[in-house]
Each structure stands twice: as C-alpha cells, then as structure tokens.
Specification:
It is built from five helices and no strands. It is mostly helical.
C-alpha cells in the first residue's frame, strides 16, 4: 500500500462574530428619521387642535352676533369671554387668565397692526362686562368686526 502523505491542512476557522457597531444602514435611517417624523407629527397635531379652536370660535362668534335672545350687554360679556378662551387655548406661553385692564388690551392688540382694542372700540371689553347696562357709545357691530379681525389674525 502506498504511503499517503499528510497534507498541510489547517483546522477550520470560523469567521469572527459580527459586532454591534457599526449598525446596518437600516438602523442609521431609523435613528435619523424617527425623531424627525415624531417632531413633525407633534407639530401637525398641535396645529390641528389650535385651528379647531379658532374655527370653533368663529362659529360661536357668528352665533353670538345673530342671537336675538341676548341683550347687547350680554353679547359684550359673552364676546369678552370668548376672546379670552381663544387666547388661552392658542397661546400657552402667556398667563392669559391673569391679564386684566390695559395689559389684556395690549395682549389683544399684539396680533394686530394698530391698537383698536386699547385706543378704539375694544376698550369697552375692560369695563362694560361689569356694568348694569350697555354704555351708549358702544358700537356692537364694530366690536364684532374687531373680534372677527382678531380671530383671523391668530397664528395657528
């Protein structure tokens, strides 16, 4: 029998185990896009709810203006409350509930070009809700127009 020579073979070597770093491209994309998509989703949800508040306020303003059951003084009181509710829902940075007098009028004027609340018909929102009857110088139609203008100027 012929003598078999031993071949110079080495043992089988297994490849090294795959490390956790660097991750595959899919993980990189997930790390990048999940925070970006989450941010935009949060912004869109916030805008949706703020738009809803202003849209609802416009509907309520129209109902209030055409309401024949309320007296003009009651309409001014309701209008003042409506503006305050809209301001509180659309601006979470400012303590709207605590604003009164000139500061409240300054806040309302801050989203408009002129100062129609502080120097115009909007002044009546400070004192009129607390009076027993509507002063004769209050133009209700102009006040409602001013409220519509303020609602349209709100940033969603």
């Amino acid at each position: 029998m012929p003598k078999i020579e031993e071949l110079p073979l080495r043992d089988i070597h297994l490849p090294e185990t795959i490390g956790w770093f660097p991750p595959a491209i899919g993980w990189w994309l997930l790390i990048i896009f999940v925070p970006i998509i989450s941010y935009f989703a949060i912004v869109l949800i916030q805008q949706f709810f703020q738009k809803t508040a202003v849209k609802e306020a416009k509907k309520l303003l129209k109902q209030l203006q055409t309401n024949n059951v309320l007296t003009p003084l009651e309409k001014v009181v309701e209008l003042s409350g409506l503006l305050r509710r809209v301001a509180m829902s659309s601006d979470s940075e400012t303590n709207i509930a605590g604003l009164t007098g000139r500061v409240w009028l300054d806040y309302l004027d801050s989203s408009l070009k002129d100062t129609p609340f502080k120097n115009g018909i909007g002044r009546c929102l400070v004192d009129t809700p607390y009076q027993k009857k509507l002063p004769p110088d209050v133009d209700l139609a102009a006040l409602f127009d001013l409220a519509k203008m303020w609602l349209n100027a709100q940033k969603y």
